[in-house]
Amino acid sequence: MDLTFVSTNAGKFREVRTILAEYDVGVRWRRASLPEIQAARLDDVVRAKLGAASRPGRYVLVEDSGLFLPALRGFPGVYSAYALQTIGLEGVLRLVGSDRRARFQTVAGLSYGGRQWLRSGACEGRLAKRPVGDHGFGYDPIFVPAGHRQTFGQMRPTEKNELSHRAHAIRRIGRLIHSWS
Ligand code: ITT
Q1: Ligand 1 neighbourhood includes 151 CB (under 6 angstroms)
Q2: Contact between 105 and 122 (Cβ < 8 Å)
Q3: What pTM value is reported for the model?
Protein backbone atom coordinates (compact mmCIF):
# COMPACT_ATOMS: atom_id res chain seq x y z
CA MET A 1 0.00 0.00 0.00
CA ASP A 2 1.09 3.59 -0.40
CA LEU A 3 -0.02 6.93 0.94
CA THR A 4 0.45 10.64 0.32
CA PHE A 5 2.18 12.69 3.00
CA VAL A 6 1.19 16.36 2.84
CA SER A 7 3.65 18.84 4.39
CA THR A 8 5.96 21.71 3.53
CA ASN A 9 8.78 20.15 5.55
CA ALA A 10 11.32 17.98 3.68
CA GLY A 11 12.91 16.81 6.94
CA LYS A 12 9.61 15.41 8.18
CA PHE A 13 9.05 13.67 4.83
CA ARG A 14 12.43 11.91 4.95
CA GLU A 15 11.76 10.62 8.48
CA VAL A 16 8.19 9.50 7.71
CA ARG A 17 9.29 7.69 4.52
CA THR A 18 12.09 5.84 6.33
CA ILE A 19 9.89 4.76 9.23
CA LEU A 20 6.92 3.63 7.13
CA ALA A 21 9.24 1.61 4.86
CA GLU A 22 9.61 -0.74 7.89
CA TYR A 23 5.91 -1.53 7.43
CA ASP A 24 6.10 -1.87 3.61
CA VAL A 25 4.16 1.36 3.22
CA GLY A 26 5.36 3.62 0.38
CA VAL A 27 5.18 7.38 0.92
CA ARG A 28 4.66 10.01 -1.77
CA TRP A 29 5.23 13.62 -0.81
CA ARG A 30 2.78 16.38 -1.71
CA ARG A 31 4.62 19.55 -0.79
CA ALA A 32 1.77 21.82 0.17
CA SER A 33 1.00 24.29 2.89
CA LEU A 34 -2.20 23.41 4.70
CA PRO A 35 -4.24 25.91 6.71
CA GLU A 36 -3.03 25.79 10.33
CA ILE A 37 -5.89 26.83 12.56
CA GLN A 38 -5.16 28.64 15.80
CA ALA A 39 -5.81 25.93 18.33
CA ALA A 40 -4.39 25.04 21.72
CA ARG A 41 -3.97 21.35 20.85
CA LEU A 42 -1.98 19.54 18.18
CA ASP A 43 -4.83 17.11 17.48
CA ASP A 44 -7.23 19.94 16.61
CA VAL A 45 -4.63 21.30 14.17
CA VAL A 46 -4.21 17.82 12.67
CA ARG A 47 -7.97 17.27 12.21
CA ALA A 48 -8.20 20.61 10.38
CA LYS A 49 -5.14 19.78 8.23
CA LEU A 50 -6.69 16.41 7.32
CA GLY A 51 -9.99 18.07 6.43
CA ALA A 52 -8.13 20.21 3.88
CA ALA A 53 -5.77 17.50 2.58
CA SER A 54 -8.05 14.47 2.19
CA ARG A 55 -8.52 13.03 -1.33
CA PRO A 56 -11.17 10.49 -2.39
CA GLY A 57 -9.67 7.02 -2.83
CA ARG A 58 -6.27 7.97 -1.33
CA TYR A 59 -4.69 7.35 2.03
CA VAL A 60 -3.52 10.80 3.15
CA LEU A 61 -1.16 11.41 6.08
CA VAL A 62 -0.41 14.71 7.82
CA GLU A 63 1.19 15.56 11.14
CA ASP A 64 1.75 18.48 13.45
CA SER A 65 4.57 18.70 15.96
CA GLY A 66 5.74 21.06 18.66
CA LEU A 67 8.36 21.63 21.32
CA PHE A 68 6.74 22.04 24.75
CA LEU A 69 8.75 23.71 27.53
CA PRO A 70 7.41 23.27 31.08
CA ALA A 71 9.37 26.39 32.18
CA LEU A 72 7.21 28.40 29.74
CA ARG A 73 3.99 26.51 30.55
CA GLY A 74 4.18 24.61 27.29
CA PHE A 75 5.25 27.44 24.98
CA PRO A 76 6.14 27.36 22.07
CA GLY A 77 4.01 24.18 21.65
CA VAL A 78 1.53 24.67 18.82
CA TYR A 79 3.35 27.93 18.00
CA SER A 80 6.72 26.23 17.48
CA ALA A 81 7.05 27.07 13.78
CA TYR A 82 6.20 30.72 14.45
CA ALA A 83 8.66 30.94 17.36
CA LEU A 84 11.43 29.49 15.21
CA GLN A 85 10.75 31.94 12.37
CA THR A 86 10.59 34.96 14.69
CA ILE A 87 12.97 34.58 17.65
CA GLY A 88 14.90 31.54 16.39
CA LEU A 89 16.81 28.94 18.42
CA GLU A 90 18.86 31.54 20.31
CA GLY A 91 15.70 33.44 21.18
CA VAL A 92 14.03 30.32 22.58
CA LEU A 93 17.16 29.49 24.62
CA ARG A 94 17.17 33.01 26.07
CA LEU A 95 13.59 32.57 27.36
CA VAL A 96 14.35 29.63 29.63
CA GLY A 97 16.16 29.74 32.95
CA SER A 98 17.33 26.83 35.09
CA ASP A 99 14.40 24.52 34.24
CA ARG A 100 15.59 23.16 30.89
CA ARG A 101 13.12 20.29 30.54
CA ALA A 102 11.63 19.94 27.07
CA ARG A 103 9.20 17.60 25.36
CA PHE A 104 8.65 17.09 21.65
CA GLN A 105 5.19 15.93 20.65
CA THR A 106 3.76 14.79 17.34
CA VAL A 107 0.21 14.01 16.38
CA ALA A 108 -0.06 12.14 13.06
CA GLY A 109 -3.38 11.86 11.23
CA LEU A 110 -4.36 9.42 8.48
CA SER A 111 -7.51 9.78 6.39
CA TYR A 112 -9.29 7.52 3.95
CA GLY A 113 -12.88 7.37 2.72
CA GLY A 114 -14.10 10.11 5.05
CA ARG A 115 -12.55 8.50 8.15
CA GLN A 116 -9.69 9.87 10.26
CA TRP A 117 -7.25 8.04 12.57
CA LEU A 118 -4.98 10.03 14.92
CA ARG A 119 -1.90 8.67 16.70
CA SER A 120 0.50 10.59 18.93
CA GLY A 121 4.10 10.27 20.04
CA ALA A 122 6.32 12.13 22.49
CA CYS A 123 10.00 12.40 23.34
CA GLU A 124 11.18 13.77 26.69
CA GLY A 125 14.46 15.63 26.97
CA ARG A 126 16.10 18.91 27.79
CA LEU A 127 17.44 21.97 26.05
CA ALA A 128 21.14 22.19 25.24
CA LYS A 129 23.04 25.30 26.35
CA ARG A 130 23.63 26.30 22.73
CA PRO A 131 22.77 24.92 19.26
CA VAL A 132 25.01 21.98 18.23
CA GLY A 133 24.97 19.66 15.20
CA ASP A 134 24.10 19.86 11.53
CA HIS A 135 21.72 16.93 11.21
CA GLY A 136 17.96 17.14 11.18
CA PHE A 137 16.00 20.37 11.07
CA GLY A 138 14.12 22.89 13.17
CA TYR A 139 14.85 22.56 16.89
CA ASP A 140 17.08 19.48 16.53
CA PRO A 141 20.33 21.37 17.38
CA ILE A 142 18.99 22.36 20.83
CA PHE A 143 17.10 19.20 21.89
CA VAL A 144 18.87 16.51 23.91
CA PRO A 145 16.66 13.42 24.37
CA ALA A 146 16.52 11.92 27.87
CA GLY A 147 19.31 9.43 28.58
CA HIS A 148 21.56 10.92 25.87
CA ARG A 149 24.32 13.53 25.77
CA GLN A 150 23.99 14.56 22.14
CA THR A 151 21.36 16.75 20.53
CA PHE A 152 19.17 15.34 17.76
CA GLY A 153 21.23 17.65 15.55
CA GLN A 154 24.36 15.62 16.38
CA MET A 155 22.71 12.24 15.82
CA ARG A 156 22.56 10.27 12.62
CA PRO A 157 19.03 10.05 11.15
CA THR A 158 18.81 6.37 12.13
CA GLU A 159 19.43 7.28 15.79
CA LYS A 160 16.82 10.05 15.81
CA ASN A 161 14.36 7.64 14.18
CA GLU A 162 14.79 5.21 17.07
CA LEU A 163 13.83 7.78 19.68
CA SER A 164 11.85 10.64 18.32
CA HIS A 165 8.31 11.84 18.95
CA ARG A 166 7.65 11.47 15.20
CA ALA A 167 9.03 7.92 15.15
CA HIS A 168 6.65 6.91 17.96
CA ALA A 169 3.61 8.48 16.29
CA ILE A 170 4.43 7.19 12.80
CA ARG A 171 5.19 3.66 14.04
CA ARG A 172 1.73 3.67 15.60
CA ILE A 173 0.33 4.59 12.18
CA GLY A 174 2.46 1.82 10.62
CA ARG A 175 1.13 -0.75 13.08
CA LEU A 176 -2.43 0.41 12.44
CA ILE A 177 -2.03 -0.03 8.67
CA HIS A 178 -0.38 -3.39 9.22
CA SER A 179 -3.35 -4.54 11.31
CA TRP A 180 -5.62 -4.03 8.29
CA SER A 181 -3.78 -6.51 6.04
P1 ITT B 1 4.04 21.28 7.97
O2 ITT B 1 3.94 21.83 6.58
O3 ITT B 1 3.99 19.78 8.02
O4 ITT B 1 3.07 21.92 8.95
P5 ITT B 1 6.04 22.67 9.58
O6 ITT B 1 7.55 22.71 9.50
O7 ITT B 1 5.27 23.95 9.52
O8 ITT B 1 5.53 21.63 8.46
P9 ITT B 1 5.01 22.02 12.27
O10 ITT B 1 4.08 23.17 12.32
O11 ITT B 1 4.49 20.67 12.66
O12 ITT B 1 5.66 21.83 10.85
O13 ITT B 1 6.34 22.20 13.10
C14 ITT B 1 6.49 23.07 14.15
C15 ITT B 1 7.92 23.50 14.23
O16 ITT B 1 8.63 22.52 14.96
C17 ITT B 1 8.63 23.71 12.91
O18 ITT B 1 9.45 24.86 13.03
C19 ITT B 1 9.49 22.48 12.77
O20 ITT B 1 10.70 22.76 12.09
C21 ITT B 1 9.75 22.11 14.22
N22 ITT B 1 9.86 20.65 14.33
C23 ITT B 1 8.89 19.75 14.07
N24 ITT B 1 9.38 18.50 14.21
C25 ITT B 1 10.67 18.62 14.58
C26 ITT B 1 11.69 17.72 14.84
O27 ITT B 1 11.52 16.41 14.73
N28 ITT B 1 12.90 18.20 15.16
C29 ITT B 1 13.11 19.53 15.26
N30 ITT B 1 12.19 20.47 15.02
C31 ITT B 1 10.99 20.02 14.66
Answers
A1: no
A2: yes
A3: 0.96
**Which of 8, 139, 151, 161 should be mutated for ligand 1, with most atoms under 8 A from CB?**
139
Q: Is any ligand 1 atom within 6 A of the Cβ of residue 80?
A: yes
Residue 68 sits in a domain whose CATH number is 3.90.950.10
For residue 47, give its domain range. Answer: 2-179
64 CB within 6 A, ligand 1: yes
Which atom number of ligand 1 is nearest to the Cα of residue 160? 27
Residues facing residue 23 across a β-bridge? none
Backbone angles phi, psi at 13, to 5 degrees: -60, -45
Q: List, for residues 109-145, the tens digit of each pLDDT value.
A: 999 999 999 999 999 999 999 999 999 999 999 999 9
The catalytic residues are 64
User: Whose CA is closest to atom 20 on ligand 1?
Assistant: 138
Distance CA 82, CA 76 (A): 8
Bond from prior residue into 141 cis (ω within 30 degrees of 0):
no
Rounded to an integer, the average pLDDT of 94-113 is 97
Q: For the chain, what is the domain count?
A: 1
